[in-house]
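Trying the structure run again after the queue cleared.
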Amino acid sequence: MHRFVRCPRAAGAAALCVAVVAGAVISALPSRAAAQSWGTVLPGTQCPAFPADDVWNTPVTGLPVAADSATWLASMDASSAFLHPDYGPSGRKKKPYGIPWQIVAPSQPLISVRFRYASESDPGPYPLSASTPVEGGSDRHAIMVNPDTCTLYELYDTHYHGKRRSTAGSGAIWDLDSDALRPAGWTSADAAGLPIVPGLVDYDEVSSGTMDHAIRFTAQCTQQAFVWPARHEAGQDDTDCPPMGARFRLASSFSLPASQCSTMCQTVVTTMKTYGLILADNGTNWYFQGTADTRWTDTEVDQLKQIPASAFVAVDESCLMVSADSGQAYQPGTTGYTDGCG
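Done. Tokens:
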């Protein structure tokens, strides 16, 4: 696992951020546009996890409850389920649960990848190598960030076999300075056609006391539909199940005592109240994803298992949409938000 340092949010043009990448030290200058709209910053880089006005980075505390909220919650057994962090210690110190991602040196060679779903994948090439960490389990996500261009590369079902024989199920390339979404109907490295990185619970963010973006999570049953900002469905013919992209918010009244929920735990709880969860993939109900990081402890993970799914509601975030093909969202206090959501 690569260790990342957190860069300052409002660094000046001459500021440097140093990251350790596969044993080598690189310096990442601020991205070409991020300085004018800082939102979430990817730890170890000067790159935004998409612009500050992106839907991932937009609070949902003022949004109305979705009309189908109760139905969707029932389909996910919310009355008896508790949230489950899908990351943390695995019993093998160097192989924690979670989704790993890698900062690649700008000079990292790019290779071609053959895709099973080529018609919905960005052809690349990708900075995939033998040293790229690949998620354990069946999804085999491989995620790479070029800190010089602020380009995010994400692959699903990744198998590295050298320059000409590497394969993946699907792949997507994202400009982290842009709100652009994938074409409607396209998958990504995720079933919802969304990026993965901006929805991960990251150790550096949580330990800093601030995590200002929505969190990615899964549900066992999803319907054959998607709602903005999702672009793809992978569900079944059951409209009682939530669509990909559905967003859920933790009740503002919910609390856990400090004796049962540390400062890091409280940070995640606050994030769920403010930014909520975005349904991004099929999987076990109420599992939410974080980075594969050896620094997570059993206590930091287990405390979050006390959050009941029944304390959530689905919210209607359609009023945030500026354009169907963009992740840009109206922000609280702006005219668009006040007219449609307030």
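The CA atoms of residues 107 and 146 lie 9 Å apart. Worth checking whether this holds up in the mutant runs.
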